[in-house]
Amino acid sequence: MKKKFCHIPKTGGVSICKLINRLPGHTIEILDGKKYIYTFVRNPYDRLVSSFFYLKNGGRNNMDKQDKKKYINNYSFSEFVIHKLKTAAAHQKHFRPQTYWIPKGASFIGKFESMENDLEELKKYVPIKGKLPHLNKSNHKDFKEYYNEEISEIVYEVYKNDFIKFDYDKKSYIK
Q1: Beta carbons of 118 and 110 less than 8 angstroms apart
Q2: Cα–Cα–Cα angle for 100, 71, 68, rounded to 5 degrees
Q3: To 10 degrees, the CA torsion angle through 51, 39, 26, 100?
Q4: E strands, the chain, where?
Q5: What is the sign of the dihedral through the CA atoms of 106, 16, 165 and 91?
Q6: Of 42, 41, 58, 55, the residue nearest 84 (C-alpha)
Q7: pLDDT for 38-84, tens place per residue?
Q8: 3-state class of 135 per DSSP?
Q9: How far apart, in Å, do the first and last CA atoms of the chain sit?
């Protein structure tokens, strides 16, 4: 059975790609019964902060730079959430909901927050060797520093399916 990694943006995927000797890249996998598809998800509040600062700091390529101008420009995190998040979540890959990327019936869904332990479990099915590197880290404060009730409510509504499907607490932004 062919094993495929579903790389969701800003969930530790660049590090995993390095570990499994694959080039980073985001594609939607089609589950055809002949593939073992595995992926990792991340707390939507934390992932959004990471995505925002990844693009605000220029990203990794020209498309990221164009998307910075289109969606972030000079906005603060709060201004971005209020004015641009809904549009960005519908059109920009780093802001799309995680459920957008994962095919129904994916074989393994690990969590960014427990990646080391989840990788140990995944090793039963996927040949993984070596230690997990920490690559493509965004530069920002703890994600909880960016949230208040108003901002978290907007983010929850945009990513509600991610919160529910992957069992993340709506109140996890609270310090």
Answers
A1: yes
A2: 100
A3: -70
A4: 2-6, 35-41, 108-111
A5: negative
A6: 55
A7: 999 999 999 999 999 999 998 889 999 999 999 999 999 999 999 99
A8: coil
A9: 44
Using alpha carbons, select from 83, 55, 75, 76 the residue that is nearest to residue 154: 83
Q: Is 43 helix (H, G, I), strand (E, B) or coil?
A: coil
What is the side-by-side order of every strand in the sheet holding 2-6? 2-6, 35-41, 108-111
How many angstroms separate the CA atoms of 46 and 135, rounded?
16
Residue 4: name the closest of 126, 104, 131, 119 by CA.
Answer: 126
Structure tokens of 62? Answer: 């020209």
Contacts by 67-75 with C-beta closer than 8 Å and gap 24+? 67/92, 67/94, 71/95
| Backbone φ, ψ for residue 19 (5° rounding) | -65, -35
Question: Could you say which DSSP state residue 69 is in?
Answer: I
CA 115 to chain centroid? 13
The phi and psi torsions of 6 (rounded to 5 degrees) equal: -95, 105
* pLDDT value of position 31: 63
**Burial of residue 55, with CB atoms counted within 10 A of its CB: 0-12 exposed, 13-18 middle, 19 or more buried:** buried
CA proximity to 55, closest of 40, 43, 66, 41: 66
Q: Which amino acid is residue 93, in one-letter code?
A: K
Q: Tell me, what's the pLDDT at 27?
A: 67
Type of residue found at 171: K
